[in-house]
Amino acid sequence: MARSPGFLFALPFEVDTAMIPQLHRASSTAEILTYLYGPDEGGNHTNPRLIAGDVHGAPIEQLAGPDSLPDLAQVLDEPVERLGASAPKRPTWVCSVRSDSRRPDLTDPQWATVARRLVAAAGIAPDGDPDACRWVAVRNQPRQLYVVATLAREDGSLHNAYRDAFRLHSECHVLTGEMGHQLTNPYPKLRTQETPVAAPAITITHEFSGSVVAKGANDDLSASLLKHAGFQLTEDWYGRRHRVPTTTPVTDKVAIATHAAEMLRAARYVVDLAPSLDTARMSTPAHPLGPYAAGAELLQITERIRAAEHGDDLQRAVDHLLHPEHGALECVREALEAAGEHINDLDDEAYQLADRFGVAADFVSSAQSELDGWEAELRRVRPWQQPRIETRWRSPKLTDSRGAARATSPVAAKAKASSTLGAGTADSGAALRPSPVPEPRTR
């Protein structure tokens, strides 16, 4: 599966609807079009062609060929360029849609109708909107459609992509029913009973001589994995043996044995590793969440966010969470997509579970879209300053509290009313009132 900078093309998985969308954002429209029109790593791109689009009056027929891709990208990016510095970092909106392989493929006109319905449902190009975003629809393989748009509208505003994933899934469900592609049995079929084959058991342990020996690795695959980890192969009258020499430092012996055990277990071998050669048993995790190192890192980010004293500190802390390429949120999105893909690779009948991971990745992508432009806004955040209390401080004695209580009591009010006949009434009444002290502003 090929990658282009800032963009991951991930194929969807089948659920109870036979047309599944996947939504992504990219930083370069030209690179996306080049990818779609060029050969991918698997050689799946054949006969790339533009089947629909709306670029607000530009001659789209003349821009549909592979030689005109730079011009087509420039036409799509024109509203984005008008925004200047306020343009989003990832302004290119890409939706890939795949139809069910168990149903007849749609024709180009049918796929063009699907594209128009999707951009209208998502709000990219609602019907009759003169300021809609610019978009094109490209086909480069059977049962697949790509819709490429830019998020800047003609009136200078930006399309809010927060709920696009939900709208696209809902519209695809409606389209599936209208086209008669609804699956009659969406539930996975149970596989026939398979007889498990016992994997060879391999023991990695210390010998009295001080060397580390792996026993039971009698096939070529296990021998190759042990050699890759650092074991040396010896074949003599005792047979085939894999060992780490006695002259190897102890820390290296432990690292080699642990690495060999990890690779063998990944290859479905049963491995009995001596506790003295297992790094996981030798060391205690240094982070508070035990084996969940990623969670511990996120806790550190949270503490940095809470400790920020102004917008610049907060921006630097949040950058570890929201960086478009290396941030924790982007890593979570890629991990969810990878989990869905790997589930499908391990068991092609588990497509419902795989698609749930794909939808979760779309939720994270929607959250990233909601936070576009957060860097500049955070830098403007300033610490809240408590206003100075302009008052005359006196010694906090009981007489002050008693005087304030008298000034607001019914007895004091009655005394004030009766003293209005005297010449010094106003002054004496004012003397009974406490000095107004402004309360501190609270958030």
Can you tell me about this structure?
- This protein has 443 residues and is α+β, with helices and mostly antiparallel strands.
- The protein contains 15 helices and 12 strands.
- The radius of gyration is 34 Å and the shape is globular.
What is this structure, in a nutshell?
The protein is α+β, with helices and mostly antiparallel strands. 42% of the residues lie in helices and 14% in strands.
Secondary structure: elements and pairs:
Blueprint: E1 3-4, E2 7-8, E3 19-26, H1 29-37, E4 49-54, H2 69-83, E5 92-99, H3 108-122, E6 135-139, E7 144-150, H4 164-178, E8 201-206, E9 212-215, H5 220-229, E10 232-236, E11 239-244, H6 250-266, E12 270-273, H7 279-282, H8 293-307, H9 311-322, H10 328-346, H11 351-370, H12 374-379, H13 398-407, H14 410-418, H15 425-432
Parallel strand pairs: 8-12
Antiparallel strand pairs: 1-2, 3-5, 4-6, 5-7, 6-7, 8-9, 9-11, 10-11
Helix pairs in contact: 1-2, 3-4, 5-6, 8-9, 10-11
Keywords:
42% helix; disordered N terminus; alpha+beta; 5-stranded mixed β-sheet; 443 residues
Order of helices and strands: EEEHEHEHEEHEEHEEHEHHHHHHHHH
Fraction of residues in β-strands: 5-15%
Average pLDDT figure? 76
Low-confidence stretches: 1-17, 183-196, 386-412, 418-443
Trace the largest sheet across and list its strands.
Answer: 3-5-7-6-4
**Rg computed from alpha carbons, rounded to a whole number of angstroms:** 34 Å
Largest sheet: 5 strands, antiparallel
Number of helices: 15
The outline comes out as globular
Spatial separation of the terminal alpha carbons = 51 Å
How many beta-strand elements? Answer: 12
Q: Report the structural category.
A: alpha+beta
Please bin the fraction of helical residues: 40-55%
